[in-house]
Write a structure and sequence with these properties.
alpha/beta, disordered C terminus, 19 helices, globular, 7 strands, 7% strand, 7-stranded mixed β-sheet
């Protein structure tokens, strides 16, 4: 069936959510086993010898993947493919993460105990949960914060518990959360306390039934609540779909390991949850990538159902998904990366300059302007934001996150 210019533009725009070809090669080398994994590891061995020559997105990926690649290269099947100098670099990266993770684990244990003392029934999210349950060894996941979900009514008590554990809130923190609270330990480790699973309020604050599916398990010597497997997968993909530092590839590794090593995923819950949370458009793209590029055992019927839901997405769902896909990228990335001639690029440019009225009302709900005036206001607002971001990146030399933003 012929693909229309509109479909080509949307497919290319949403592809910004996904790793590029070089990043995919690194992911396959780190994650796949058997003959496919051996071939992938042999294929990237020359790149490991001179990582400084890699493009910025691949260097960022390598930083995240080094602890996993070190474990893979140390396998009997993998070792001959990786040179001695490269293996030493990977081992140093893994050793740094091992030391760092012990600090994360100690502070997380203190925070969880403080929450329990105050009777705060928080749900521990993402990083530490996945590190402790699906990674081959916890330190092999770079865990840079502690994430908690608490209902709005519990937020104040959760903040008090974090303060008692040594975390403090800073009014001038540039990374303060728009819909939650961020506190930072003197060691530099932040705790992020959310009352919504996703940054954009268009997506559901909670997944229907998630509290009933939440599991209480022993973790770090304490009893904690965690999301069920299907809800975890939606949280990983939904969060990454709006993230400006998606290039670290943590979402890919987290989702892949959860599918391969975690509890069995109830795919009916995953599909119905994506539909209820209005996440079908980004989730359909991300799960299909995991299945087709990284050999994740996701049933074809599940992918087809998500694709069908994605095709029925409303204009505002399309615009929010595209806005998330270009998070951290120049605005015109949505247009530049569309192949296939003028017409698909015109569609992409139209979505960029003239998104749906429903999207503008959602994005600028605090502005008392009629919709026609929101279009020029949006262009001015994004121009100022782009200038400030450029200044910020200039002031952050050597930061890979700045390079790939």
């Amino acid at each position: 069936m012929a693909v229309t210019a509109r479909e080509a533009a949307l497919t290319s725009g949403l592809a910004l959510l996904l790793p590029d070809g070089g990043q995919t090669r690194l992911l396959r080398a780190a994650l796949l086993r058997g003959e496919a994994g051996r071939r992938a590891l042999a294929g990237i061995a020359p790149e490991l010898e001179r990582p400084q020559l890699l493009p910025a997105p691949q260097r960022a990926a390598l930083r995240t993947l080094s602890p996993l690649l070190e474990a893979r290269a140390a396998d009997a099947d993998g070792a001959p493919h990786v040179g001695g100098d490269s293996l030493r670099v990977l081992r140093m990266a893994a050793a740094r993460e091992r030391v760092r993770y012990e600090t994360v684990r100690r502070l997380a244990r203190s925070l969880i105990a403080s929450l329990a003392d105050r009777g705060v029934d928080a749900i521990l999210l993402r990083g530490i949960v996945l590190a402790e349950t699906v990674y081959p060894e916890p330190f092999r996941r770079h865990t840079h914060d502690i994430d908690l979900f608490v209902p709005p009514a519990e937020l104040e008590r959760a903040v008090d518990a974090a303060r008692a554990a040594g975390f403090t809130e800073r009014a001038d923190d540039p990374d303060r959360l728009p819909g939650g609270v961020r506190l930072v330990h003197p060691s530099g480790l932040p705790v992020e306390i959310h009352s919504s699973l996703f940054l954009d309020p268009y997506y559901a604050a909670e997944l229907p039934g998630m509290h009933g599916r939440a599991e209480r398990r022993a973790l770090l010597g304490e009893r904690v609540r965690t999301l069920g497997a299907a809800d975890q997968l939606l949280h990983i993909c939904g969060g990454a779909s709006q993230s400006p530092v998606r290039g670290s590839l943590r979402w890919v590794i987290d989702a892949w390991l959860l599918i391969h090593r975690g509890p069995e995923i109830d795919w009916e819950v995953a599909v119905s949850g994506a539909a209820a949370a209005r996440l079908a458009l980004p989730v359909s793209v991300m799960l299909r990538y995991l299945a087709e590029e990284l050999e994740s055992p996701i049933p074809g019927a599940v992918l087809d159902r998500l694709d069908s839901l994605a095709r029925e997405a409303s204009p505002i769902a399309r615009d929010i998904a595209l806005y998330g896909a270009r998070a951290g990228l120049p605005a015109l990335a949505l247009v530049r990366r569309v192949p296939g001639g003028v017409r698909p690029r015109l569609w992409a440019l139209g979505w960029l300059l003239f998104p749906s009225a429903s999207y503008l009302r959602h994005a600028y709900r605090g502005r008392r302007l009629p919709v026609p005036l929101l279009y020029p206001y949006r262009i001015w607002h994004h121009g100022i934001a782009a200038f400030r971001e450029r200044v910020r990146r200039v002031r952050m030399p050597g930061s890979l996150e700045a390079e790939i933003a």
